[in-house]
C-alpha cells in the first residue's frame, strides 16, 4: 500500500513538469505498471468487485503516445491511465469516436442549439420553481418529508414548446411540459440504500411479493393525478405522457395569461396537515427581451477556484455526492492533474494554435461561469474527458450543447492542423442506458477490443444487443464477405464456461474513487443487470520483452541489456511483469514508453550505479 501511495505522489508531482511542456527536461513517456485492478462497478451498480481493468500510473506522457494508447482502448483519469479487460469485466467499455467532418446533427441536437440561442436572445420562456422538496417519499400520492436526512434535492425545470414530441395524440394546445419525473426517479434510486424501502401509491401493484421499480412513468402519473385540482381552477389541465407531465390550456386562456403576468403560479400545493415540510413551489417567468452574451474560453489545465466551486455544486446536486467526496484534493487529482506534455503551436500546420495537451474549455454567460469541459487535444483528435455545469441551467442541456461545440472546434481547427480529424467521446457501454446518448452523434465508430480496428456503430449495435462482449472486427469482416479471422463466429456467440472472476495474486483492489465514472445526468438513470459471459482472451502480440525500454533513475536501457544485473529470481519476476505489460500496451509502445519497474528504491540505486 505504501508503494502505491508513493507512485501516486510521484505521478502527481510530475504533473507540473508535464503540463509545463517547454520546461520539461525531456519529452518522453514514463509509466509505472500497477497491473490488474478490481473495483465495484459504477455502471451496473454491482456490489462485488466485478469491474476489472489494467492500470498504469503515468509520470509523463507525450501526446503521440497517449493518442496511441487511446487507439488501444486506454483512457486517463488524472495521471492514472486504465484499460478495461474487456473479456473479463462486467460492463465492457468500447472506445467511441466520430469523424467531425462527417457529423450530421439530429433534430434533437439541432433543437438543443436553438434552445441555447433563444436563451441568449432572451426569447426562451423558462419557468422553474423557487423551492423544491429536500427529501422525497411517495405515500398515497402526496409529497412529504422523508425521515432520511441524506436524501438529496431534486431540481425541476419547465420549458415551453421544447418537447412537442411529448404531446398526447389529438392535443393542439400544449403550454409546457416537465421532465421532473425522471429526476425524481434518479434521486430515489440514489437514495434507495439509505431509505431502505419506499412506499408506493395505491396505483402500484406488488409483483412476486416485491414492489416494482419506481419508474418515471409511474411518478408522472401520480403527480399528474394529484396536481389536477389546482390547475383546473386556473384554466389548465394536466396529463402524464411517457414519464413527462404535460400542461394544456382548457380554454380559459385569459386567466392563465393573468397568472403568468403576475409572476407566480401554484403558490402552495395541497399538503396533509401535520407534515413537517409541505410542497411549496413557485414558478416565475424569465424577463423577455434580455440578451445574454456567451463566451467560450480555452485554457490550459490548471486549478481555478471558480471552476472548483462550480464543480462542487454540480457534484452535490447532480451526482448526489457528499461534501467530503468533493474535496479540492480529489478535484485536482481527477480533473486538473495531467501527465500530458504540452506541445506549443509551431505555425507549420502540424499543431493547432492552442497547442497539444490538456485543457479546460470554459463556458461563460454574461461573465458567469456556467460549464467547464475537460478535454485533451491530441494529434488526431479532441478527446472529451468530463463536463460539469450549473444545475440551475439544466434546462439548456449543456452536456449536449458542449459536445456540439467540441465537434465544431475540431472542424474549425482542421484548417490549422489537418491531422486533427476526430472527436473521441470516451467509453461507450451498450448495457448502460446513460451511455447510449453517445451513439446519437453520428456516424460514430467503436474500437474492436481485440484487433483495434474501428467498426461502424451500425454494424456493432445488433451484435451488442445480443452480447456484451464482442470481437467487432470478426463481424465487420463477415459483412464485407471476407473470410473470418482465426477467432470464429461460433466462439463469440456461445458462452464459454470458466470462472473469469476468480482471484488472481496480481489483482489490485482499489477504492472506487480512484476512477471516477462519467455518467451523463441528462439521460434516465436505468442500468441493466450484469450478466456473466466470456470470450476468448486477447491474443498476445508478437514482441520480445527484451526490447522493452526500462528506466532506472537516469538510465534508459533495454531489458535484454539489463538482464545480467538481475539475479535469477528478480529476472523471472521482471519477465513476468513485462509480458503482462506488453500485452496491455502492445509491442510497439512497450519499446517506446519508458517502463519504471516496481522494485525497492535501494535495489534500483544499486543497478543504476
Automatic annotation (TrEMBL):
Enzyme Commission no: 2.3.2.8
Enzymatic reactions: an N-terminal L-alpha-aminoacyl-[protein] + L-arginyl-tRNA(Arg) = an N-terminal L-arginyl-L-aminoacyl-[protein] + tRNA(Arg) + H(+)
Gene Ontology molecular-function annotations: arginyl-tRNA--protein transferase activity
Keyword set, alphabetical order: Acyltransferase, Transferase, Ubl conjugation pathway
Coiled coil: none
Compositionally skewed regions (Acidic residues) per UniProt: 520-530
Sequence ranges assigned to domain N-end rule aminoacyl transferase C-terminal in this UniProt record: 306-448
InterPro entries, per the entry: Acyl_CoA_acyltransferase (IPR016181), Arg-tRNA-P_Trfase_1_euk (IPR017137), N-end_Aminoacyl_Trfase (IPR030700), N-end_Aminoacyl_Trfase_C (IPR007472), N-end_Aminoacyl_Trfase_N (IPR007471)
Region: Disordered, residue numbers: 1-31, 520-544
Pfam families in the cross-refs: ATE_C, ATE_N
CC annotations in GO: cytoplasm
Record domain N-end aminoacyl transferase N-terminal: where: 39-109
Domain of life: Eukaryota
Biased composition (Low complexity): 10-25, 531-540
Recorded family membership: Belongs to the R-transferase family.
Known role: Involved in the post-translational conjugation of arginine to the N-terminal aspartate or glutamate of a protein. This arginylation is required for degradation of the protein via the ubiquitin pathway.
Protein name: Arginyl-tRNA--protein transferase
UniProt lineage: Eukaryota, Viridiplantae, Streptophyta, Embryophyta, Tracheophyta
